[in-house]
């Protein structure tokens, strides 16, 4: 009996021991995977980590994996590899070095990695993840530098990317009816990689053939977009691909001399002896994902420059715009922006860390220039304005001794160039400057800017010169972010006239002699009573005789706004309470809806913000139709308002709201074609027609006159509208 019990205990102890051993192995594997992930993700961060520490991390990572890689860990590493390369394309070199070190001891795994990355390059084109695909291309290029793939394989791969560009040379050899934006992107992928391999491959026939193909493509492609996409009318900005070719070609003429200050990250050079022991891998035949109808490629761009000798004088060690060093600096900054734009603190830390690693270069100037270039990019910025503004504020707080001075310089340059700035960039600039200075006590170059205004300035007059309009709108925006007294204390006396009057409602029916005053008095008494309800108000309006329906609507609107004038919350509450009355009075009738909008204008004549916010609210409550807003904005009585920002904020807000509504209908009634009625396209067509009619009716005016400025402002707003809704307007 004791023998049987002892046997059971031994078996139980053995089972427990095996289970404990399995658990330990599992924990070890999980710990190893977590360590690998932490180190791999850390390799791509530009957070000021020293070169020595990055090299040490690379060495430790390679050592950690040198004793064998399990099946699950292999999958995890490959998944991390494509994530990191896709998220940090500018750091592809460090990940290629990591794979090169693995290749020394595990040829088969690296072969799997190579096949995996090539497959991901194809998939990323299919899924339109252009940044990831470019990162993979640069990763493969650096695998050549890490002695993982031979030059023949690499050059064949790059030739595949340029094949469609070469088709332009022979019209009978067009392989695919792809747009120029696709060919531009393919050319950019190859051209941007040339500085990485030019020194080693100079003179090789296949490499020189690639350079000739690029040169011919750049020369023959159409670059008519540069004028349209330039931020300034009198300053033509260079096409990004043409400028990159000039920068790369300049490097070639210098026999691919290595740019100074380690602008090309080459961590693999520290492991050159180790990497030489790895075996070479040959890339199998690679094909690009074919062009698909409707596929959207990265749009054409122009290069944004504000820091030049003409604008601020000489900036010590700032590379010339035609030098490859300028491109390398900007490319790293753009990669960090795109990687971390959703996390402003991480993004700011990465940018400041990068600047700290290049103390001999004016990296802060480049950072500010790139961010502002992205923000003011035409036709539209990639992200919302606050994204760029919040990042610049974070940079100023992170490096208060250096970045704020650069931002102030940039503001001055942009202010001085307002005379030729595209109107499509104007609102973005006003919104950014107002947000930025609101974070720093509204301290700004107020006095300096005031001195540069044309003299004399009559603030009460309708002066439409760009600098005057900018300051007027900037002060209005600052008032939205603060209060009247605070802004009045900050602006100099010379700009005091630009301050709008205090935000007070104008209720004209206090004059009992005015038509509608009797109805107004009756409505006020009823609306203030505790028994007030929509039905009671409707009965009073219906029972009133002697005045027309449009005046009744105007009176009711003004009464509502007068009673709710204490705050936006009070206004919204009273509009919600009498929502049914508004619907009964004006539903489906454009003329009656116009009477509501005129009522808003009458009460809040001195406040652009209230006119915008209340009108927008009525559109969202479906009291006002979008077409009624369009008709109101382009009504002759609103002619002078067309140079003010709030009008266009309202117009674009209205169109966006209608697009959301239409999208919701399409989602609900996906099988009903009638549900996708092109209401938005009808509104946009109406807007464009009204623009044309308004501009056609404007008198011919001499340059520099108010009429000339008015025409330029409205024409610029037409261009802005076409930019914003380009995809909708195409059809």
Automatic annotation (TrEMBL):
Residue ranges of every copy of the MIF4G domain listed in the record: 33-252
Organism of derivation: Drosophila yakuba
GO molecular function: mRNA binding; RNA cap binding
Chain spans, region Disordered: 1-22
GO cellular component, one term: nuclear cap binding complex
Biological processes annotated in GO: 7-methylguanosine mRNA capping; mRNA export from nucleus; nuclear-transcribed mRNA catabolic process, nonsense-mediated decay; regulatory ncRNA-mediated gene silencing; RNA splicing
Family: Belongs to the NCBP1 family.
Major subcellular location class: nucleus
The protein, known as: Nuclear cap-binding protein subunit 1
SUPFAM superfamilies per the UniProt record, alphabetical: ARM repeat (SSF48371)
Keyword Nucleus: yes
Keyword Nucleus found: yes
Functional summary from the UniProt entry: Component of the cap-binding complex (CBC), which binds cotranscriptionally to the 5'-cap of pre-mRNAs and is involved in various processes such as pre-mRNA splicing and RNA-mediated gene silencing (RNAi). The CBC complex is involved in miRNA-mediated RNA interference via its interaction with Ars2 and is required for primary microRNAs (miRNAs) processing. Also involved in innate immunity via the short interfering RNAs (siRNAs) processing machinery by restricting the viral RNA production.
Subcellular localization, as worded in the UniProt entry: Nucleus
Biased composition (Basic residues): 1-11
């Amino acid at each position: 009996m004791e023998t049987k019990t002892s046997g059971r205990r031994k078996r139980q102890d053995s089972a427990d021991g095996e289970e404990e051993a399995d658990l330990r192995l599992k924990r070890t594997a999980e710990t190893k995977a977590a360590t690998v992930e932490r180190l791999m993700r850390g390799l791509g961060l530009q957070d000021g980590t020293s070169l020595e520490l990055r090299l040490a991390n690379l060495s430790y990572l390679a050592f950690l994996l040198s004793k064998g890689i399990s099946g699950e860990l292999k999958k995890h590493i490959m998944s991390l590899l494509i994530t990191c390369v896709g998220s940090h394309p500018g750091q592809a070199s460090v990940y290629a070095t990591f794979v090169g070190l693995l290749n020394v001891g595990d040829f088969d795994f690296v072969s799997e990695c190579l096949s995996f990355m090539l497959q991901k390059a194809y998939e990323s084109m299919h899924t339109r993840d252009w940044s990831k695909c470019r990162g993979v291309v640069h990763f493969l290029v650096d695998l050549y530098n890490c002695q993982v793939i031979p030059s023949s394989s690499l050059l064949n791969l790059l030739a595949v990317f340029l094949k469609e560009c070469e088709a332009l040379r022979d019209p009978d050899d067009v392989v695919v009816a792809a747009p120029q934006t696709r060919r531009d992107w393919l050319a950019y992928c190859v051209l941007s990689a040339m500085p990485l391999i030019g020194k080693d491959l100079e003179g090789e026939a296949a490499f020189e053939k690639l350079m000739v193909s690029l040169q011919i493509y750049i020369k023959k492609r159409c670059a008519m977009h540069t004028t349209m996409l330039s931020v300034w009318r009198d300053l033509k900005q260079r096409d990004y691909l043409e400028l990159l070719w000039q920068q790369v070609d300049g490097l070639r003429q210098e026999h691919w001399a290595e740019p100074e200050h380690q602008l090309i990250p080459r961590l693999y050079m520290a492991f050159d002896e180790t990497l030489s022991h790895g075996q070479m891998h040959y890339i199998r035949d690679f094909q690009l994902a074919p062009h698909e109808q409707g596929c959207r490629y990265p749009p054409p761009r122009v290069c944004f420059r504000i820091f030049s000798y003409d604008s601020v004088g000489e900036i010590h060690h700032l590379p010339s715009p035609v030098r490859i060093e300028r491109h390398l600096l900007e490319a790293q900054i753009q990669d960090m922006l795109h990687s971390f734009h959703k996390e402003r603190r991480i993004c700011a830390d990465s940018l400041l860390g990068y600047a700290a690693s290049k103390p001999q270069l004016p990296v802060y100037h480049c950072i500010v220039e790139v961010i502002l270039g992205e923000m003011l990019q035409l036709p539209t910025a990639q992200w919302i304005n606050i994204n760029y503004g919040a990042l610049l504020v974070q940079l100023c707080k992170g490096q208060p001794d250096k970045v704020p001075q650069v931002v102030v310089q940039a503001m001055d340059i942009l202010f001085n160039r307002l005379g030729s700035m595209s109107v499509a960039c104007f609102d973005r600039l006003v919104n950014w400057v107002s947000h930025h200075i609101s974070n720093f006590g509204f301290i700004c170059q107020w006095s300096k800017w005031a001195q540069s205004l044309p003299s004399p300035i009559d603030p009460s007059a309708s002066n439409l010169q760009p600098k005057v309009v900018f300051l007027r709108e900037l002060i209005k925006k600052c008032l939205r972010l603060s209060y009247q007294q605070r802004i009045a204390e900050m602006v100099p006396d010379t700009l005091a006239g630009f301050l709008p009057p205090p935000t007070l409602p104008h209720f004209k029916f206090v004059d009992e002699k005015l038509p509608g005053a009797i109805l107004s008095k009756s409505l006020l008494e009823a609306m203030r009573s505790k028994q007030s309800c929509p039905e009671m108000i409707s009965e009073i309006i219906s029972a009133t005789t002697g005045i027309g329906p449009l005046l009744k609507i105007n009176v009711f609107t003004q009464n509502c706004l007068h009673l709710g004038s204490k705050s936006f919350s009070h206004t919204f509450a009273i509009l919600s309470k009498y929502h049914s009355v508004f619907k009964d009075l004006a539903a489906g009738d454009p003329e009656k809806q116009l009477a509501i909008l005129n009522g808003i204008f009458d009460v809040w004549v001195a406040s652009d913000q209230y006119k915008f916010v209340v009108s927008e609210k009525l559109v969202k409550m479906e009291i006002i139709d979008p077409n009624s807003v369009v008709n109101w904005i382009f009504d002759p009585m609103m002619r002078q308002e067309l140079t003010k920002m709030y009008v266009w904020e309202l117009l674009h807000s209205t169109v966006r709201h209608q697009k959301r509504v239409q999208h919701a209908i399409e989602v609900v009634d996906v099988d009903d074609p009638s549900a996708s009625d092109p209401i938005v396209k009808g509104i946009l067509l109406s807007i464009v027609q009204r623009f044309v009619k308004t501009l056609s009716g404007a008198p011919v005016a001499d340059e520099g006159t108010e009429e000339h400025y008015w025409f330029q402002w409205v024409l610029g707003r037409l261009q802005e509208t076409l930019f914003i809704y380009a995809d909708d307007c195409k059809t």
